[in-house]
Amino acid sequence: RKINPVTWNALFWIIMLFASVNAIAKSFMQENRGRYLYYYSICSPQAVILSKIIYNLVLMALLSLVCLFFYHVVFNNPVQDPGFYLLAVAVGGISFSSVFTMVSAIASKANNNTTLMAVLSFPVMVPLLMLLIKFSKNAMDGLERSASLNELTALLLINVIVIAVSLLLFPYIWRE
Fold first, then answer.
1. Over the range 80-92, which residues count as b (16 or more CB within 10 Å of their CB) and which as e?
2. CA dihedral over 65, 67, 69, 72, signed as positive or negative
3. What's the rounded Cα separation, in Å, for the pair 100 and 124?
4. Average pLDDT over residues 52-74
5. How many Cβ atoms sit within 10 Å of the Cβ of residue 38?
6. Residue 166 and residue 162: Cα distance in Å, rounded?
7. Structure confidence by residue, pLDDT tens digits, 140-167
8. Over the chain, what HEC string results?
9. What is the C-alpha to C-alpha distance for residues 57 and 31, in angstroms, rounded to an integer?
10. How large is the average pLDDT for residues 109-120?
């Protein structure tokens, strides 16, 4: 089918957003209290949150590739620079995994409320989605790669900040 490239890109990121919420929401919410006690006795809170982020990153990478493949099969692929678009997908996977892992940890302490996870992640995800859509749109249009350096830098800095905040704040969530 023929679809407008802007719509193609926006729909891809919205699909990825909802898929990541469903996939990553379970990272803390499906574990019982006994498993938390076991983790608490054998490792540090930073190791737990970092391992969850890495696991969710791998999960998002696989999910992104599968989604991109099926999206390519169903719709014509309007991407002019596939390598740069894959970079956008990889940075998006890092963003989704880091943000949703931390928010999932917070929401798991509030009676496993998935709605709370969506509400808490909204202020961070809206700017991330806007940057990802703009960054990947530049790759779709085949623009010079240097035109996207501002978006790439902003996305990477947001990821660093979210992971640093996760490492700093998770021990306080972990103690409870």
1. ebeebbbbbbebb
2. negative
3. 10
4. 90
5. 12
6. 6
7. 888 888 888 899 999 999 999 999 999 9
8. CCCCHHHHHHHHHHHHHHHHHHHHCHHHHCCCHHHHHHHHHHCCHHHHHHHHHHHHHHHHHHHHHHHHHHHHHHCCCCCCCHHHHHHHHHHHHHHHHHHHHHHHHHHHCCCCCHHHHHHHHHHHHHHHHHHHHHHHHHHHHCCCHHHHHHHHHHHHHHHHHHHHHHHHHHHHHHHC
9. 19
10. 75
Given a contact cutoff of 8 angstroms between Cβ atoms, the answer to whether 13 and 85 are in contact is no
Say how far apart CA 123 and CA 47 lie, in whole Å. 26
Measuring CA to CA, which residue among 50, 63, 55, 83 is closest to residue 20?
63
With b meaning 16 or more CB within 10 Å and e meaning fewer, what string describes 3-30? eebeebbeebbeebbebbbebbbebbbe
- Residue 9 confidence (pLDDT): 87
